[in-house]
Design brief:
The protein has about 300 residues and is α/β, with parallel strands linked by helices. Helix content is about 30%, strand content about 25%. The chain is built from ten helices and twelve strands. Strands 1, 2, 3, 4, 5, 6, 7, 8, 9, 10, 11 and 12 form a twelve-stranded mixed sheet that branches. The two termini are about 35 Å apart.
Length: about 300
């Protein structure tokens, strides 16, 4: 089954050209099944790139998915056109009374700031609290994972001596979690961050399970006991060239970045990067939609029980 998005959203043509099954609103309205309702709070500056990456992954199941794209009202995006935001995005105040099967909160390039110094922190706290009553299962990505762990459980983040940058092997810690169903014992994930959370801090919270870990870059996936709050520190949604673009951007800024690890063949940035994480990424989001959302969320979202 397809993902249901407006046919004039830039991602629509991109995904259609990749032979990914997308459906316009007009066609979707004629379906007799209840689609999953998923909200995406997009905190990334390059919103069109990020929304396309996530929509590609959400379209990879037999489930019909309706999407609401959300931006913060307390921060004005400088990298996405006002017309795109006006046409395709809403704000939290417009959807606060709605209920969703799932919510995805993206990363954001603000990890060098204390949480309280982020100009939309108060709004994000309100959304994080709202997710406990109005959303069945929430995925927090990268900075949002750290912010969510801090808000919900008081888990702190720590600045690293140097940026974690590259594609790294990961292993499963909790083998019976449905989010990791059919995973290989070792799988690759991109990371790009200057901060970290400590494994012992996660293991000291009784309500949390550590699902996946990397010996090279630490904690990867954390979830509460119900899989209604999921925290992912890496960027499995990234495209083949995303780390390359970040590397070239940092060169232009005079930051003298190191090459992303395990990424360019022969460590030569002129070579096409190896895409080694797409299968894991697709499987994880499919597992989330199927096992953590579709098979658990009530058919009538008005019967959604709050997360304790």
């Amino acid at each position: 089954m397809p993902i249901n998005i407006p046919n004039n959203l830039p991602a629509y043509t991109t995904l259609l050209n990749e032979n990914i099954f997308v459906m316009s609103h007009d066609r979707a309205s004629k379906q007799d099944i209840r689609p999953l309702r998923i909200a995406i709070l997009n905190l990334m500056p390059t919103k069109i790139v990020t929304e396309t990456q996530l929509l590609r992954l959400l379209s990879n199941t037999a489930l019909q998915v309706d999407i609401d794209l959300i931006q913060t009202a307390s921060h004005t995006s400088k990298n996405t056109s006002a017309s795109h935001l006006h046409n395709f995005y809403t704000t939290f105040d417009k959807i606060r009374d709605m209920r969703y099967d799932g919510l995805i909160i993206t990363g954001a390039p603000v990890e060098h700031l204390e949480y309280e110094d982020v100009n939309y922190w108060d709004e994000l706290k309100e959304i994080l609290e709202w997710s406990k009553t109005n959303v069945y299962s929430t995925i927090h990505i990268c900075w949002a994972a750290q912010a969510g762990l801090f808000y919900h459980y008081g888990v702190k983040k720590y600045m690293l001596d140097e940026k974690v940058f590259g594609v790294f092997p990961h292993k499963i810690i909790c083998h019976n979690n449905p989010l990791l169903n059919s995973f290989d014992d070792v799988f690759m994930v991109p990371h790009s961050r200057y901060t970290d959370i400590k494994r012992e801090d996660i293991e000291n919270v009784p309500d949390l399970n550590l699902l996946s870990y990397s010996d090279e870059c630490g904690v990867y996936i954390v979830a509460d006991k119900t899989n209604r709050q999921i925290f992912i520190t890496g960027h499995s949604e990234y495209d083949r060239d995303t780390l390359k673009h970040e590397y070239l951007r940092d060169i232009e800024r005079g930051l003298n970045p190191k090459l992303p690890q395990n990424y360019f063949p022969d460590n030569n940035p002129d070579n096409t990067p190896t895409l080694s994480w797409r299968c894991h990424s697709s499987l994880m989001f499919s597992n989330w939609l199927n096992f953590c959302v579709y098979q658990q969320t009530p058919f009538d979202l008005n019967q959604l029980e709050p997360l304790e």
